[in-house]
Amino acid sequence: MKPLPLLVALVITCAGLLRADSKPEPVDFDKARAIFERQKKGGSITEEERAYVERAKAERAKRGRGGSTGAGPQRKAPEHLTPLCDMAASDRYEGEDGGLYGSGSNEPSDALRNSAEAALAQIKPLDAEGKPSAEGRIAFVSISMSNATMEFSTFKRNADGAPQKSDKVTIIDCAQGGQAMAEWVDPGARTWEEAMKRIASAKITPAQVQVAWVKLANKGPSGPMKEHLAKLESDTLRVLQNAKAKFPNLRIAYLGSRIWAGNASSGLNPEPYAYEGGFAVRHLIQAQANGDAALAEGKAPLLLWGPYLWAEGAKGRKFDELKWLPGDFAKDGTHPSDSGREKVSKLLLDFFSNDPLAKGWFAK
Fold first, then answer.
1. pLDDT for residue 17
2. Which one-letter DSSP state was computed for residue 329?
3. Prediction pTM value
4. How far is the C-alpha of 154 from the C-alpha of 330, rounded, in Å?
């Protein structure tokens, strides 16, 4: 066999080195999910497609352990973060002013309050077909990830035994471990399948779901605040649209952000990202109030703040006496311990029992 000409050999060698040194293209999780769903339904897939799915699973597992998913490295939190509810109109964080609803206010505007009252007036016990009935139910669901299911399941247990809760309200925890906003974006995702199973197990139909609690978070956020919030808000928008399509009588979604994560030991959702999620909640509420067509009536439920859960660790906040102590967290400093879950449960129960824009449907 004749030896290859020197020039040809060099070209082949260099091409091989380029392939070895080049980085693989980022995983397209929508593509991987489509392949996986086709296989699950009995369709055939190629070995190349099978390898792609396995690569996606490995990448997802890596991110679940705290790997960054955004653009650039995770930022280090500043020494001090002011709770959004404590910030005045003149205060600034990354160009944002204070207050849950903006301009230093922790209360909705008159226009938003009027819209909320109109939505609240439509919440009433419904039968399985979604028609008003004295024997009907008001179903209240949660949508989000591990922290949310830990907190909401504790809330459900406590609320179901609370004397102030209406007997017409059925609370269903649909939040699921490892399933942040990005995992609810696809309307055909297994998150929604599982949610529907839980709703059916509670002897509730989708037509009876009228209220939701949605906790905003994505796994492994990184990069500048503007960039990671853009993805979080985009994902949450699609989740809200999915929820409205699946639950046609969904009137209100109470939004929430994460608890403090100053002792987090992984990149799953550390500070300042846990804190900054509160601005994503506010942006979505403001966008709807300003007439964003994607959040218009019929496309999404009315958006309001639920209880604001963030306080600066043991320093707490001026708004109330909420503090987050080391014992309120699991070893990872991200997920709540039993005491942490009880704190969130109390905040939720107090809010839905007493807030003027919640107690009308929740309390007796």
1. 40
2. B
3. 0.83
4. 16
